[in-house]
Design goal:
Elements lengths: L2 E6 L3 H11 L5 E7 L2 H11 L3 E4 L8 H11 L4 E6 L4 H10 L3 E4 L4 H12 L4 E2 L1 H13 L17 H11 L4 H8 L3 H15 L4 H10 L6
Helix pairs in contact: 2-3, 3-4, 4-10, 6-7, 6-10, 7-9, 8-9
């Protein structure tokens, strides 16, 4: 089954360009377009796409609010934000609203297609120039790692959550082991378990997951 995509942007020319890029791929089908946030929410409810490519600047509501509404109504629909904004606050707000990916409009067509596929597989994607900022988040907001309910977030163990906190700070496996008084091999085993439980494949995606779950306050 092809990946069913809804394109949301208030510029018809850009929507057409995105359609042409995506429809070149045999595993992607553009099922609809929308030019505003309200229309995006309605079209997403009607079409139930696998993924929405969402602009942030829309005439009636922000793409971030539209993302929040779409994800609330249809959790299985992923959202890939495509925007000119490279400020950290937009990235964090989009992730907190439920977006699975965040790319800038200068992205290469090949990278955009890969982002669509990764988001639909549940792996997520962040534009390369912004990935480092996601990892830096853990260092700057270390004291704000607060799991919902005050306990250890399921399905992680207490030790895995401690490792995840240090991963988000950009700490190496060796240093994590030194801080927690465990071997580097044990650290690697914990990280493998964290990635498996969270359904992610790298450190950036793990931090994104933590933001989306409310473990890091944004």
């Amino acid at each position: 089954m092809p990946i069913r995509v809804l394109i949301v942007d208030d510029h018809a020319l850009l929507r057409e360009g995105l359609r042409q890029v995506l429809q070149l791929e045999p595993d992607i089908e553009v099922v609809g377009e929308a030019g505003s946030g309200g229309e995006a929410v309605r079209r997403a409810a009607q079409l139930r796409p696998d993924l929405v490519v969402m602009d942030i600047n829309l005439p009636d509501m922000s793409g971030i609010e539209a993302t929040r509404q779409i994800r609330s109504a249809a959790p299985s629909t992923q959202v890939l934000v495509l925007t000119i904004h490279d400020q950290e606050e937009y990235l964090l707000e989009a992730i907190a609203a439920g977006a699975s990916g965040f790319v800038l409009k200068d992205v290469e067509p090949r990278a955009l297609v890969e982002a669509v596929r990764l988001c639909c597989r549940g792996e997520g994607y962040v534009h390369p120039t912004l990935s480092a900022r996601v990892l830096q988040l853990g260092t700057r907001r270390r004291e704000r790692w607060t799991p919902l309910g005050g306990g250890i977030p399921e399905p992680l163990t207490r030790r895995e959550f401690e490792v995840l906190q240090l991963v988000a700070e950009g700490v190496s496996n060796r240093e994590i082991g030194q801080r927690l008084f465990i071997s580097e091999k044990t650290v690697k085993n914990h990280i493998t378990s964290i990635f498996r439980k969270l359904g992610v494949s790298d450190r950036t995606q793990a931090v994104i997951h933590a933001i989306r779950e409310g473990w890091v306050k944004v």
